[in-house]
Amino acid sequence: MLKEVKSVFGKTFYRIEYKDDLNVVEATWQGTASKQDLRNAIIAGLEVHENTKCAFRLNDNTEFTGPWADSVKWIEEEWLPRAYKSGIRYLAHVARPNSFGEAAGEAMLLGKIGAAIEVKLFDNREDALQWLKKKQEADDASKFSIDSTTGNPA
C-alpha cells in the first residue's frame, strides 16, 4: 500500500508505504510543506497504519527542510490517539543533525508521543531499520514467552 501527497504547489513531498518484506510502514518527507500540507500527509499516513495495523514506523526526514516542530502539538492531539489505536508502538525518526526534522523528532521524543510510543532518533535509515528489526524480534519473542509461575503463555 503506497500513498503520495502533493503540496499546494503540486509537488510530491510525502510518500508512505507499507513494506511487507520489512513489516514496516515507511514515511519519506521531501522538500517543504505548509502546515495544511503536513496535516494532509499525516492523515494519509494514518490511513496506511489503520489498514495495515503495523506497529513499526520509519519516519525519514533527511530530505525535508520545512520547519514543523511547531506542529507537534497538533500531532499529539490529532495524530497520536489514532496512531496508537491503529497499532503504532515503535517510531524510528531519521533526520539530519541540527535540522528542523531533528528538532521535531526531539519534541516528539520528549512529549506525549514519546510517552505513548517508543520513539528513537537516528541520523541514517540503516540504523533506524536495524532498531526496528530488533524491536520486531523482541515483540515476536514476547508473544511466545511462558509465565514461569503457571507454565502458561505470558
From TrEMBL:
<dbReference type="Pfam" id="PF11964">
    <property type="entry name" value="SpoIIAA-like"/>
</dbReference>
<dbReference type="InterPro" id="IPR021866">
    <property type="entry name" value="SpoIIAA-like"/>
</dbReference>
<protein>
    <submittedName>
        <fullName>SpoIIAA-like</fullName>
    </submittedName>
</protein>
